[in-house]
Amino acid sequence: MGSAGRGMQGAVHRSVLVLARQWPASLKCVCQLCEHTNFTCQTEGACWTSVMLTNGKEEVIKSCVSLPELNAQVFCHSSKNVTKTECCYTDFCNNITLHLPAESSSRPNLGPLMLAMIVAIPVCILSLAVMLTICIRQGRYCAYRKKKRQNIEEPLSECNLVNSGKTLKDLIYDMTTSGSGSGLPLLVQRTIARTIVLQEMVGKGRFGEVWRGKWCGEDVAVKIFSSRDERSWFREAEIYQTIMLRHENILGFIAADNKDNGTWTQLWLVSEYHDQGSLFDYLNRNTVTIDGMIKLALSIASGLAHLHMEIVGTQGKPAIAHRDMKSKNILVKKNETCAIADLGLAVKHDSVLNTIDIPLNPRVGTKRYMAPEILDDVMNINIFESFKHADIYSLGLVYWEISRRCSIGGLVEEYQLPFYDVVPSDPSVEDMRRAVCEQKLRPNIPNQWQSCEALRVMGRIMRECWYTNGAARLTALRIKKTISQLCVQEDCKA
Ligand SMILES: Nc1ncnc2c1ncn2[C@@H]1O[C@H](COP(=O)(O)OP(=O)(O)OP(=O)(O)O)[C@@H](O)[C@H]1O
Ligand SMILES: [Mg+2]
């Protein structure tokens, strides 16, 4: 297992420790990780034992489940071929050994008819799959398709979890408020991830593919990293699970899973699915009204302000800088507000030690959106504020992309990437440096924007995001306040 894999393992144990924390109660249970309390924990909920396949081996965990966790209905649930879990309610009743259902070794001898069926069924399934692929490729109506789709979307046994009308969002809320405040316990994340049915690929980025998947009838997004990019996967999962990061304008993280099938490791990051896709996709397809532009811009500023802000206290959060702000890394939600995504490059600030946890990750941001100080290689990476300033520069470029698509009096410009007119389509750092640092070019702010108050303000914000001196740029909070005032004038609902 790589270092990230070991980190994940450690995290699993941390989540078990969260489960095992003391609860004002009388039921005593076996707890393997409770060395300091003689391997015993106490709870008002239930004793818990679970076995899960981890890297090809059965990993058994025994602990306590608190009442809120019990109410969330996830812990006591076994998942076919993935986990076997039991909850019980008498002292030390979890002092038992569970095993996952045995596979081929315990199969009875099969007759010739049975053997023929075993050979014939996979062949049939394979043929059907080939036919289906051809059918979909040719784009022809296929009566089969609908039937098949219904089948694959059939609720899995895990859906008993949401029988009570709970959505994934409710589940995460329940768990977050009863646990460590950073998301679902890792064993639950694994169970969810391993019971998702992938539906279709919706995008491809530098680090792998993004799929739409189904979990209990709900759409989820699954970002699949190649094992080469294990560090990026681990870092992104780690950042998303920062305490108190959850915010309506930051992509809702659901689960991370590293599944080792013996040959390679599949790395999954599961998040909320937004069917409008990225802001880049959205602006290519749509124009926006003034209200629409303000709503998009305000929601991005709110998300970034939350990310940048340090919240002090035990339930606080560190300041985080994104480092890859661009329209492709922002998703558009159903209500036409945004969620900032792709936190794999982010850095956290430890204000007590005044340190930055720069990940040992070779990935750098997107050249087109890089601030002048990064292109010039003069940014002071020991000062956390520098990273925030660089985010603000990129935010200004995103605002320019949105504002161009704002229709006033029927006039609107076509969608373009920033600097489309001065650098080639896949610019090098040198191309960007020449334009942004040497020639000091910035995207053009059209004269007609002066005729509309909202666009005039957006233009002013952009200019104040693009100063060469990072420290002179606006803060995300200031931008949020300025746009909120616009919002009042324009009477828009964010
Ligand atoms: N949660 C999501 N819901 C819906 N669509 C998504 C989601 N996450 C990503 N996508 C889609 O998948 C595409 C690919 O995303 P990904 O982050 O892998 O690459 P990218 O942002 O296009 O490029 P880069 O690798 O530079 O970040 C996005 O552009 C978007 O259209
Ligand atoms: Mg991306």
UniProtKB/TrEMBL annotation:
Domain GS: 166-195
Pfam family, one: TGF_beta_GS
Subcellular location: Membrane
Residues of the signal peptide: none
Record membrane topology: Single-pass type I membrane protein
GO biological process: anatomical structure morphogenesis; apoptotic nuclear changes; apoptotic signaling pathway; cell differentiation; cellular response to growth factor stimulus; insulin secretion; lipid storage; negative regulation of chorionic trophoblast cell proliferation
Segments forming domain Protein kinase: 196-486
GO molecular function annotation: activin receptor activity, type I; ATP binding; growth factor binding; metal ion binding; nodal binding
Listed cofactors: Mn(2+); Mg(2+)
Enzyme Commission number: 2.7.11.30
Keyword RNA-binding: no
InterPro entries attached to this UniProt entry: Activin_recp (IPR000472), GS_dom (IPR003605), Kinase-like_dom_sf (IPR011009), Prot_kinase_dom (IPR000719), Protein_kinase_ATP_BS (IPR017441), Ser-Thr/Tyr_kinase_cat_dom (IPR001245), Ser/Thr_kinase_AS (IPR008271), Snake_toxin-like_sf (IPR045860)
Family: Belongs to the protein kinase superfamily. TKL Ser/Thr protein kinase family. TGFB receptor subfamily.
Functional description taken from the UniProt entry: Serine/threonine protein kinase which forms a receptor complex on ligand binding. The receptor complex consists of 2 type II and 2 type I transmembrane serine/threonine kinases. Type II receptors phosphorylate and activate type I receptors which autophosphorylate, then bind and activate SMAD transcriptional regulators, SMAD2 and SMAD3. Receptor for activin AB, activin B, activin E and NODAL.
Listed PANTHER family: ACTIVIN RECEPTOR TYPE-1C, TRANSFORMING GROWTH FACTOR-BETA RECEPTOR TYPE I AND II
Name under which the protein is recorded: Activin receptor type-1C
Naturally occurring in which organism (per UniProt): Crocodylus porosus (Saltwater crocodile)
